[in-house]
């Protein structure tokens, strides 16, 4: 038995089924609670546009639930691990398995295999569902839950730089010379970076060169005066090709589309550290589910009647949540260029893999 990584087929199926049921139960509970809390703050904004009603609320729920599933699936795996292992320990099933000759790693093997399957499904779900939900929800939020432009190339929260000056837009539609920017703001800044004037416009179109603002209104910071302008062209150095690159939203791109975008940025010498960190995290993020049985394994061993089972469960939960804290911090540092992208995405994973293995080997093996 010691030469086989997995226990018997019956025991493997028994543990895997128990683990899957608890993962689904915890995930449904988390998603329902978080969705209800989210609706408390979002419903008022969704119903503000005229004509919006229950259908729009259900649409929002349909777009928000994939995001919640993607974000909290690893947490669900962690909590399901603790519930499963504590239950097995309390019922002396772990003692029975070890008495039959199984090692600690063999006891955990069915859970690790199940977590690997969950990680693969999570990656596919993120690529096929979550990226599309991100794009649609951001576009809908940018128009304050009103009608979304029909063009499929809608991008939101666009931030562009022209030297020291800044051009922002709530939405971007189209590509090339046919780009249209809506809810536009132009910030003209001095050499020191201080804003001298702000110009708001309902939309902007490419004027070749520059961008013609429609119905612009200027606010002079120095005099604090506001005036309407008949016509104005800004951002002469901003070409449609540059905007196509600058307005990319990594969260709305699939793994392969993001890879192509990174290559395009590299070709023109643009900074890619944030997108590279995001690209690597598309793999390491779902794989975090495999860590959870290892980090929570401390709750499986030790005698339940010793009175330390609750303490062991707390330690397992602390290790799991510590991983998520370190992972988010490292990803943020990678986005700002503090860490190399590969290190930002993978260092927490391998660090806690070593921590989990060390704890398991030194205490149980």
From TrEMBL:
GO terms for biological process: lipopolysaccharide transport; transmembrane transport. The keyword Cell membrane applies. Coiled coil: none annotated. It comes from the Bacteria. The keyword Signal does not apply. Its main location: membrane. It is a multi-pass membrane protein. It is found in: Cell membrane. One of its GO terms (cellular component) is ATP-binding cassette (ABC) transporter complex. Pfam families: LptF_LptG. The chain crosses the membrane at residues 20-40, 68-87, 107-125, 309-326, 338-361. Keywords: Cell membrane, Membrane, Transmembrane, Transmembrane helix. PANTHER family: LIPOPOLYSACCHARIDE EXPORT SYSTEM PERMEASE PROTEIN LPTG (PTHR33529:SF2), SLR0882 PROTEIN-RELATED (PTHR33529). This is LPS export ABC transporter permease LptG. It comes from Erythrobacter insulae.
